[in-house]
Amino acid sequence: MPGFFASVFQWISGLFFSKQAEIAVVGLQASGKTSFVNVITSGQWSEDVVPTVAFNFRKIRKGNVTMKIWDVAGQPKFRSMWERYCNGVDAIVFVVDSLDHDKFNTARFELHQLLSQPTLSGVPLLVLGNKNDLAGHASVKELIKGLQLDKISDRPVSCSMKSQHNLDIVLQWLAGRSH
Ligand SMILES: Nc1nc2c(ncn2[C@@H]2O[C@H](COP(=O)(O)OP(=O)(O)OP(=O)(O)O)[C@@H](O)[C@H]2O)c(=O)[nH]1
Ligand SMILES: [Mg+2]
Fold first, then answer.
1. pTM for this predicted structure
2. pLDDT confidence bin for 56, thresholds 50/70/90
3. Which of 134, 133, 130 is nearest to 143 (CA)?
């Protein structure tokens, strides 16, 4: 019975203290955006993920925070849409494949191009250096250099959707953008 009262209390306090955060997830194709959204939604890692066409929308609840997530496709033909999905959100998550050193230049170009849009001025940004379960992945320092993140206030987070390393830090940061 105490468990029952505790869950009723949790449900009621959730109604009164619930917060919202709208998040756009962007980055080059195959960096792991959909994997990130799948893992934070279901807690389950799966290799089976198909390239996103245009976007996916997901709504999830973490504690008392409801997150509305736009998972936007990363193939070149979809990149011009990124700004539209990022406009008005509480946070942008930019995912990088930290093993794919050859694509850092392209990722840097696309990220800085996106951030130069006047509509996105001041939107909080978190860069995820994903796939750090794989040997040869870039360190945080290498990501800062490769993507010229030194002028961006929040440090990138090195993480893995496969091992779920540092996912707790990412979720904490996202919850902090809620209102
Ligand atoms: N080893 C490893 N593989 C990962 C990780 N995250 C994603 N992948 C793999 O990377 C590939 C691409 O993942 P997606 O989540 O589809 O990438 P995406 O960024 O959504 O790609 P688009 O939808 O095309 O823009 C898949 O084969 C995933 O299984 C990770 O942390 N570690
Ligand atoms: Mg995807």
1. 0.92
2. very high
3. 130
